[in-house]
Design brief:
Elements (H helix, E strand, L loop, with lengths): L3 E4 L2 E3 L5 E7 L8 E7 L6 E6 L5 E3 L7 E6 L4 E6 L8 E8 L7 E3 L3 E5 L2
Parallel strand pairs: 2-11
Antiparallel strand pairs: 1-3, 3-8, 4-5, 4-9, 5-6, 7-8, 9-10, 9-11
Length: 118
Amino acid sequence: QVQLVESGGGLVQPGGSLRLSCAASVRPFSFYTTAWYRQAPGKQRDLVAKLTSGGTTNYADSVKGRFSISRDNAKNTVYLQMSSLIPEDTARYYCNVNFRDSPNLNYWGQGTQVTVSS
């Protein structure tokens, strides 16, 4: 059974930084597109950042220049480095991996809470 285990969330003050990690059990991890989504209470789940197997990145406009997605294929892990955090970044962040947009090979983590507050 595929597992995605996220870590790194927490409470941070505005202007601070956090790094989220997601370890995935899919194989071969390097073939999968990896992404981070977030969902605030009462809102839909939105894409934050995506990194394809070929290295192409895509970011939501609201996080461009502040967040960076990366991956370590040797560790089967995807990261989200978040800087200059603002209260509007408060949400539950979910890791996603997908193989060639297949609905049958699309997996989610359990989410990790990020709260930006003074």
